[in-house]
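Example S7 (structure tokens).
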């Protein structure tokens, strides 16, 4: 790094000094609240510690744009040159989201080692599962050793316990050489509770709070530099780390009254970078708004985001298979809710939401918007981890119903997403876990979880302590399960469905489906062109139109090649070619 690399935006400081290695160098103020080292600095070798002394501080603070925090988020940053890595993915030209399957994983629990390099050792498994993209839970720097990652405070630094930025480059490179794209989950709607020094430098935050913390300043005084801070961090993942897309966390919590919303500006700049790099780059929003304008192209009056998560699909599938109707699941009790989601994308598209106590959502123009713009799942980190014990549906459902969830997810017209271990009915929970070193923060986090679950009617005795190291350890996948009994059978079913997606273009056709349902008998049919999905959640066997069985949850490993009568047993589903 050279002197320009150490420039820092600190409009709130009256004096700034650069702490670099064993030296302290003065800095001069420049236009717009920026400070630059006085004289020439560098170049300095990679790994050199540096930070900033603001005003009369005796302890340096980390760089807001830090790439490495080898000693943690409270200590100085370390220099890192991303261009030093020799990439081997020259033949990778990227891939579109439409037609692909996403696999969501958490680095710390995906393998026993919990590192980027350990993930590389499991890529063959993902290739065999037909995975097009892995979606990695946030890896930005946070306080402590293990965490979901959503409490990050330095958005451009890669968490050191996972291997740091160099190991992250190795993982992305290996994924590309295996034919798998990488989507990185990023958080721009709040900052974590420990190690957030940004307000010392400038007006990164503004008055007001969302669910997780103080609001980020996207539209107030000084917001131009804050927005640039976020945009540069986002582009960094796509350029310096060769990432193929970003999952944008809880965008409904971004309060922005600017003429051009941050999301639209991000879409503009990512499209420009995509054109320059000559490869697809994808933005996926997690949005609770049920508003298709999020994924409508800018020329059509939307934000231009490529896709968004659809919680309604998850809720409809979960209720249909488990019968659970507490809280936000209540409105999804009729099987017709699942049929509506398959037909129209959103269940709440202007309808009354009993959980919210108001009308919610807007309808999708299903004639024009491709269904692939909705990312759907039967399980994900939120829906599992935000349960008292982090229990998966595999704990509550038989094999056949688990495979019904897989069939609905992988044979629907949407972009399917799997969560780590789902494909073999993993017995490991995925609980909410933290490792805050500060005792007061640890207690506040644990107490907050108890209060949250008590409001939802959970038994407080069932709520796991997020600070207990055992909560984290139990959440790690057990890879020895793959070849055992039920686990092997479920895995065979997922692999069969993945193969069918490659063989039959009807299963990747992004037009919305045509679903019919019989509430009395609890039966549903989804028309997929020459194929049909039949789901029987009733108590009697169901004889449907003759056809060739491509997949059956009752016997996932042995499809029937000949055409003949099709009988769907209770609690099962089939995919047939008519």
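Recovered sequence:
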């Amino acid at each position: 790094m050279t002197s320009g690399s150490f420039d820092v935006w600190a409009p709130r400081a009256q004096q700034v000094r650069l702490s670099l290695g064993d030296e302290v160098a003065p800095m001069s103020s420049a236009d717009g609240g920026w400070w630059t080292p006085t004289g020439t600095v560098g170049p300095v070798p990679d790994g050199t510690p540096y930070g900033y002394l603001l005003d009369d501080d005796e302890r340096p603070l980390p760089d807001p744009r830090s790439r490495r925090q080898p000693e943690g988020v409270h200590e100085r940053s370390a220099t890192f040159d991303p261009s030093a890595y020799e990439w081997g993915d020259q033949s990778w030209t990227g891939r579109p989201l439409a037609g692909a399957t996403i696999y969501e994983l958490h680095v710390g629990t995906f393998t026993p080692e919990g590192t980027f390099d350990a993930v590389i050792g499991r890529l063959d498994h993902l290739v065999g599962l037909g995975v097009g993209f892995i979606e990695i839970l946030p890896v930005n720097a946070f306080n402590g050793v293990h965490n979901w990652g959503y409490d990050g405070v330095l958005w451009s630094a890669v968490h050191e316990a996972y291997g740091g930025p160099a190991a992250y480059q190795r993982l992305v490179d290996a994924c590309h050489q295996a034919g798998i794209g990488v989507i990185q989950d990023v958080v721009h709607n709040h900052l974590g509770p420990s190690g957030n020094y940004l307000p010392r430098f400038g007006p990164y935050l503004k008055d007001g709070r969302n669910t997780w913390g103080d609001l980020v300043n996207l539209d107030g005084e000084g917001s131009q530099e804050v927005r640039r801070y976020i945009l540069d961090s986002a582009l960094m993942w796509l350029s310096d780390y060769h990432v193929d897309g970003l999952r944008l966390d809880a965008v409904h919590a971004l309060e922005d009254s600017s003429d051009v919303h941050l999301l639209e500006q991000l879409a503009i700049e990512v499209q420009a970078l995509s054109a320059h790099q000559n490869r697809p780059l994808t933005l996926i929003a997690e949005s609770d708004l049920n508003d298709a304008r999020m994924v409508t192209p800018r020329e059509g009056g939307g934000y231009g985001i490529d896709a968004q998560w659809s919680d309604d699909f998850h809720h409809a599938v979960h209720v249909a298979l488990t019968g659970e109707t507490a809280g936000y699941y209540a409105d999804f009790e009729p099987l017709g809710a699942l049929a509506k989601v398959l037909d129209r994308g959103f269940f709440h598209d202007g309808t009354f939401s009993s959980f919210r106590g108001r009308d919610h959502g807007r309808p999708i123009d299903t004639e024009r918007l491709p269904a692939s713009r909705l990312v759907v799942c039967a399980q994900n980190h939120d829906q599992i981890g935000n349960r008292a014990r982090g229990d998966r549906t595999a704990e509550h459902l038989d094999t056949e119903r688990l495979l019904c969830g897989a069939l609905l997810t992988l044979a629907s017209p949407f972009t399917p997403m799997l969560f780590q271990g789902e494909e073999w009915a993993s017995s490991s929970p995925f609980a909410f876990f933290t490792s805050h070193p500060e005792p007061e923060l640890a207690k506040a986090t644990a107490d907050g979880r108890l209060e949250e679950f008590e409001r939802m009617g959970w038994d407080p005795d069932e709520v796991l302590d997020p600070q207990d190291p055992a909560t984290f350890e139990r959440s790690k996948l057990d890879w020895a399960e793959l070849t055992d009994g039920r686990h092997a059978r479920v895995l065979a079913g997922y692999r069969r469905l993945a193969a069918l997606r490659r063989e039959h273009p009807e299963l990747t056709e992004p037009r919305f489906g045509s679903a019919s349902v019989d509430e009395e008998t609890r039966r549903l049919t989804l028309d997929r062109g020459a194929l049909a999905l039949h789901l029987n959640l009733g108590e009697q066997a169901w004889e449907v139109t003759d056809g060739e069985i491509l997949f059956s949850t009752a016997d996932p490993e042995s499809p029937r090649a000949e055409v003949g009568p099709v009988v769907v047993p209770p609690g099962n589903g089939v995919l047939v070619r008519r």
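Notes on this example. The domain at 514-577 is CATH 2.60.40.1180 (Immunoglobulin-like).
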